[in-house]
Specification:
Length: about 350
């Protein structure tokens, strides 16, 4: 198990800045997921850590050593690529041993390491098959195995599951978690799939346009998004949003004059009245107000349609011109059919500066 330090890494392709000062410390044994939209620079960053791509500025430390300019083979790591190109004419056994053979690892050692990785990944019965005789998930396991025979201390994964169907992806997620628990290796895993990030990571680093927006546990990223970008990117159905202005008495006022009492909200700093803000509330936190204020300026929602999700339904609302959603109990619970006042705890909400997108 080894730690990784990414220090002020910048990278441009021509005049186009791709990474704009990335700082991230990954502790030994952590499973860190780099999450961000397509094109935000995730693969570029992973390739820089692996030494497959030069950086413009900054430093990479691996196991406390400066590895910024070290050859990939000196970095004690293994990498699984999105396109896991196995050699089609070689058996699984030969695919697994290939890297060691060209590095002149003694034969007995190759046999030993291939055996132990095959046992770990439960692919022993497949060792004599060719890649064409494997399912997508089995091929993926061989690709992971090929990385693990080289190093189990630090593994880098670049969207390794994106070629698999939904069921296999879910199965492989479970296997990767087990693998991490068994090996205790440090893992850096790139994905643009937030479900993958939330289920696998001990910490998630959300990247947007070449910058880290937040590094936190999955729960923290979901409950306390540091920026409006994170709030929007994480969570499905998406967080409910409403633009407005912060007033002197810690009330939020929307464009149509509806107000929300935010006295229960934990402001990061003393709020400045007049600030243009965006209010965010997760669908799980919205309910029908228990004690409707019946004030003229209370929030008012109009039900639009429901989506049945089995045990509960998702109710879509029209609120101040915005599309909101909330969960309702499919059995027993009354589903509003006419305009009603939605309620939520201010403590569960998120408030962002509209101009900077930063959490207030
Ligand atoms: N060799 C290159 N030359 C020029 N531009 C490049 C090169 N490699 C990547 N880019 C650009 O850099 C940006 C970041 O690419 P990168 O592959 O790191 O994105 P990503 O976050 O991994 O996206 P995805 O989720 O789609 O894989 C993209 O705009 C891409 O077009
Ligand atoms: Mg990529």
């Amino acid at each position: 198990m080894i730690g990784v330090g990414i220090r002020g890494v910048t990278k441009s392709y021509g005049a186009l800045p791709i990474l704009r000062g990335i700082d991230l410390t990954i502790d030994p044994g952590e499973f860190v997921v780099l999450l961000g939209p397509s094109g935000c620079g995730k693969s570029t960053l992973l390739n820089i850590v692996a030494g497959l791509e030069p950086l413009d500025d900054g430093a990479i430390e691996i196991a406390g050593e400066d590895m910024t300019h070290a050859d990939p083979s000196k970095r004690h790591l293994a990498m699984v690529f999105q396109s896991y190109a196995l050699f089609p004419t070689m058996s699984v056994r030969q695919n697994l041993g290939f890297g060691m053979r060209i590095n002149r690892v003694p034969k007995a050692e190759i046999v030993r390491r291939v055996q132990s990785v095959a046992a770990l990944l439960q692919i022993e019965p497949l060792l004599d098959r060719k890649p064409a005789q494997l399912s997508g998930g089995q091929r993926q396991r061989v690709a992971i195995g090929r990385a693990l025979v080289r190093s189990t201390r630090l593994c880098l994964f670049d969207e390794p599951l994106s070629n698999l169907d939904a069921q296999l992806r879910a199965d492989m997620r479970v296997e990767l978690r087990r693998l991490h628990a068994d090996l205790g290796s440090t893992m850096i895993y790139v994905t643009h799939d937030q479900v993958e990030a939330m289920t696998l990571a001990s910490r998630v680093a959300v990247i947007n346009r070449g910058k880290v927006e937040q590094v936190d546990t999955p729960q923290k990223v979901y409950d306390r998004p540091a920026t409006l970008f994170v709030a929007r990117f994480v969570g499905s159905p998406a967080i409910n949003l409403l633009e407005g202005v912060l007033m002197a008495d810690r009330r939020f006022r929307s464009a149509t004059g509806a107000t929300v009492d935010l006295s229960g909200y934990a402001f990061a700093s003393t709020p400045r009245p007049g600030t243009e803000v965006v209010l965010g509330v997760r669908p799980d936190d919205v309910r029908v107000a228990e004690a409707p204020a019946r004030r003229g300026d209370a929030l008012s929602a109009v039900p639009a349609f429901t989506e049945s999700l089995g045990p509960r339904s998702l109710l879509w609302l029209e609120l101040d011109g915005q599309r909101w959603s909330m969960y309702v109990d499919a059995k027993g619970g009354a589903i509003p059919t006419g305009p009603f006042e939605p309620g939520f705890d201010a403590a569960d909400a998120s408030l962002f500066d509209k101009t900077t997108g930063v959490r207030l």
